[in-house]
Amino acid sequence: MTVVLTRRHLLTAALAAGAAVPWAGTGPASAASTRLTLPKPTGPDVAGTVALHLIDEARAGRELMISVWYPASRDVRHRSKAAWLADAPLRALLDANGFPADAATSPITVAHENAPASRRIGRQPVILYSHGAGGHRSETTIVAQELVSHGYIVVTVDHTDDAYTQFPDGRLSLPADDRPATPWGQVADMRFVLDRIEELAAGGNPDAERRPLPEGLATALDLRRVGMYGWSKGGTATALMMNTDRRVQAGLSLDGPMESDPPVTRIDRPFMLMTAQFTRAAEPAVARFWSLLHGWRRNVQADGARHGGYCDHQWLIPELATITGMSNKDLTDWIGTLDPATAVRIQQAYPLAFFEQHLRGRRQHLLAGPSPAFPEVRFLP
């Protein structure tokens, strides 16, 4: 039997743990023209992105929006850059979390929409992303951009009814408290998405409207090397995906609670935990999961990190705090004491090192133990 958890249930649990769930703020908002920003990735590759609308007829016509991020041709003239979140879902997200809906406009990512894929680097590993409760596929764009800038292809997924998303015809879909919101539901979405990415790699077009795909995208996908990561509930979904789909060869959880029914079982492939609030010491489910890892494993933790320390919240909430006049105390309550710029460096370095080692076979000293470059990051035995 699968436990049915509503978005409200999951957010309440996170708050009880002191976690920073999607934003809340106080104070006056500044002009609506204030645009949020994102840090730049460190790698050499130009990024492209394309949004796809998928329909799973086997599950009563379930609709999903995904984005495929990929290394792009350097000729991106006349290609606009994608927004972090479209206007309508961004306004809904801000409003639902205590901000004026027009408090700010969306950051602009580094990814050029529908740009031709790079032919220079050949086929590259594919990494899936599953978001947290009441989240959206853009919430770890800092991580996604970093991976793409180093040649990876990243597929991010909106889990409809538990996400802020918009379909091509303009329909807005928001998290729904009266709909099931389990990690197992996210696994069903991710397996369907991976099937569709295989279809794309074989030369098909899985987009429901059959919109043109970026030139060269199909031949850029190496589905012999597939990884997955997730934040919060998406971290749990990553573990469950590895339980049920051997196509995923390496998994990374960004502070996942590891609670599900049926629970996670033994994993024999590489898995890394980046914990903050949902630690092995505080959460029996996380401790149990650690004991089930029988392949390569690591547990790293950044001092001062709250639940959102490994996603875009850690960077964007301070910007929103400045716009809305949030007090320093309230800001610290939300993001902890981990410096946002340091958090960005951690988000860029550790996921990249994990997938470099386990999808490309490039040994990473960063994963061997504590690094003087990151004194905040502890390796938990």
UniProtKB/TrEMBL annotation:
Under the heading PANTHER family, the entry gives: PLATELET-ACTIVATING FACTOR ACETYLHYDROLASE
List the protein's name.
Acetylhydrolase
Entry's Gene Ontology BP terms: lipid catabolic process
Q: What keywords does the record list, in alphabetical order?
A: Hydrolase, Lipid degradation, Lipid metabolism, Signal
What's the source species for this entry? Paractinoplanes ferrugineus
Q: What is the lineage of its organism?
A: Bacteria, Bacillati, Actinomycetota, Actinomycetes, Micromonosporales
Q: Which residues form the signal peptide?
A: 1-31
Q: Does the keyword Hydrolase apply?
A: yes
InterPro entries the UniProt entry points to: AB_hydrolase_fold, TAT_signal
Q: Does the keyword Transcription regulation apply?
A: no
The entry lists its GO molecular-function terms as: 1-alkyl-2-acetylglycerophosphocholine esterase activity
